[in-house]
Design brief:
The complex is a heterodimer of chains A (465) and B (53). Chain A has 465 residues and is α/β, with parallel strands linked by helices. Chain A contains 15 helices and eleven strands. An eleven-stranded mixed beta sheet of chain A has the order 1-3-2-4-6-5-10-11-9-7-8. In chain A, a hairpin with a 5-residue loop joins strand 10 and strand 11. The relative contact order of chain A is 0.14. The model of chain A has no long low-confidence stretch (mean pLDDT 97). The chains are: A alpha/beta (465), B mainly alpha (53). Chains A and B meet through helix 10, helix 11 and helix 12 of A and helix 1 of B.
Amino acid sequence: MTAETFWTAAAARKALAAGKITSAALVEQCLARIEAHDGKVNAFLLVTADEARKAARAADRARKAGKAKGPLHGIPFALKDIYETAGIRTTAHSRLLLDHVPKADSTAGAKLKAAGAILMGKLATHEFATGGPAFDGPFPPARNPWNTAHFTGGSSSGSGAAIAAGFVPLTLGSDTSGSIRGPSAFCGIAGHKPTYGLVSRAGVIPLANSLDHCGPMCWTVEDCALMLDAIAGHDPADPASADVKRPNYSRSLAGGIKGMRIGVARGIIERDFEGDPECLAAIEAALKVLGKLGARLVDIELPPHADWDACVRVILYAEAYAIHERDLAERPHLYAAITRTRLMAGAAVSGADYVQALRWRRELCKTYMKAMTGLDAMVTACSLAPAPTIEEMAKPPFFSVRGKLAMAPFSATGAPALSVCAGYSSSGLPLSIQIAGRPFEDATVLRVGHAYEQATPWRERRPAL
Amino acid sequence: MNTKPTAPPPLDAEARKNIADAQAAMKELIARLPRRFGYADELGMTFRAGHDR
């Protein structure tokens, strides 16, 4: 057992079931790897080692007694530090919440525990899931394990970094305007933003209610499906939670994509951004792989990305400003400069502006569904450039779009969207594609992603820390 | 005894400039919003994923 061992949840599950490893040993491996490398990566804000060891011993006893709790029994996970944890500090990476110790777990965190998973700790985030990377916050920003001079993406920065670094096999992130998919793209992992309403946000510190999603960030799509099986489902504690029939996402991965009709949103790839040549080549190569797997690719048109982005950011910052209005007035100095600046942008949105954006969003949703007519899924870029340096991203201007992230259509529509690794740049940074679908057709999106992953060698490479 | 919280220190010029820049950028986003919606579109502001499935 060494700090250099990597585990996926699927592999750990098989090894645990076969008695080839214990949960206690798995937890020790994760702790050793965190101890050895997190000083460079800053993925964790808090490692709950004692609690994890205790839970692992209990999991091993339960398994021995034939009382395994569920499919994630004994497998380590970690939570973005906006997921509330009973008796464990939950800071949202902010000075404003350094003493915040919740009384209850978030619904998603509680479901993971009920499925047998073991909490290893709390992960870095951009402050309140929006302000980062910041060097003036209470904790340092997470760094990209592929090259620690580079940005992880945000806001689920610690989740992306922890998975890429192999610290834990399972994490939860959150995605309001790309915060699962961006870090997944930059860190070379699989990150799934489920359909809006599929996973409860109860007990998760909000950024913008009508756009917030909770979802899995893992090394493979298979692990995302395993995690989604555990956390999806109706929750009366979240008013946006959807009461819908859902499939078993893990079992739905099988069968391949032969005969599927997959739309290619070429406008996003070729018209809306000046894509990095290596990114563009990786996307074209990925499309060829999907074609070879038997999918029929069809070019589709969506409105310009700038429209989706404007609609999303007006809604997002109007809602976020309302949450933070009082703290921004009474103790603005406690926020990191980038957070304060971004949240204050919301003060410029009038009530009428907000309502017009909501009406526009409805129209854009209809356009999206029309574009999806006759299609099983859609593929486009996630990021059209590899991860920039962290120093570059930490500088003002704080509100302008400086990256080439193409995620807004799926934020606005609440449609399921998955980022998967599509290779590496010549400098060794991950490249990505984004796979999306109709609302509540997450299983199809994951199936396409899984088929692509299985057909490509990108999961064989890990960052050298 | 009730101790009133002290007022936060004023934001410095750089912080105020960053906020002004962000709000100017937000105004550019707002300028992209269509204003053509009429009475008939009012229900459109209710959001739920999968409305149009």
